[in-house]
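re: ur question from yesterday

yeah so i grabbed the chain u mentioned. its 314 aa long if i counted rite. heres the sequnce exactly as i have it in my notes:
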Amino acid sequence: MSSYEQNPTKPSDTPVYLKLAAVTMIWGGTFVAGRFLADSLSPLFAASLRFLLASIALLLFVWQARVPLLRPSARQWLQLALLGLFGIFFYNLCFFYGLHYINASRASLIVALNPAVIGLASWLLLKERLGRAKVAGIASCIAGASIVIVSRNPQLLASNADAWIGDLLIFGCVLSWGVYSLFSRELNQTLGPVQTVTYSILLGTAMLWATSALRGELSVDALLSLGPQQWLGLTYLGVLGSALAYIGYYDGIRKIGATRSGVFIALNPLTAVILGALLLGEQLTLTMCLGGGLILAGIYLSNKPLASAAKKGI
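ran it thru and got these structure tokens back, copy pasting raw so excuse formatting
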């Protein structure tokens, strides 16, 4: 195993928090990029292209960093296939098809449930301890994210006749991500985050392309018709939003656990609001600031108990 994948003891979790914050900020832009591509490509073909670029970026990263790819056992291959099925294949079908029915703001509101789903599943399946502060932190993150999203786009709750389909599909993303986050725990410890992400993405990409071929959705004409903006969106989704961000997120899960890592997802809508204010001149309201404060307070509460326990040697 390379030095990159070793887990040296660190006096503080601050570097992990900063990495997870950066990862979720990158993910904040994936809904916009995905919604933009939803009008240009079929959902299945868009997902296939996204993860083809992610696979190429990961293999180049592994080659450049000289990380030797380990040979997984038969049991590990099954676990990796499960991650590829839920975290890559099923998640992205729900993601791209869902964005055909609802807008990016409404989708991000549903995805804000991620910390609660991951926390509840960790408690039920992995017997992870959920103290009062952690539960309060998760609730604060969800409330803050909801305030930020609704205040930015008050009309997002006004649904059309088919919006429930999009809502259901995006909630499928939440469930898929819960599986991807929780069932990576053992592989993260044995193979490491780089290996786990690389193999799971390669397997998920193969599933996407095989399904695209069987459904006849591979289109050279659609590929040639893509403009620079579409390719930029695909590159953002594949390289930043998938390859690099997935490694950072898995590394966070390995070091501080799924629940504590999952609460950082609440930063997605806050990032979109801040970028909108800085780059697009959008108005930053007091309500948005209140929502942002609740998100930050929730992240602090969710991570403070374990940090305090670590200091006491518990």
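noticed a couple things. The chain has 15 helices and no strands. also The first helix runs from residue 14 to 28.
anyway ttyl
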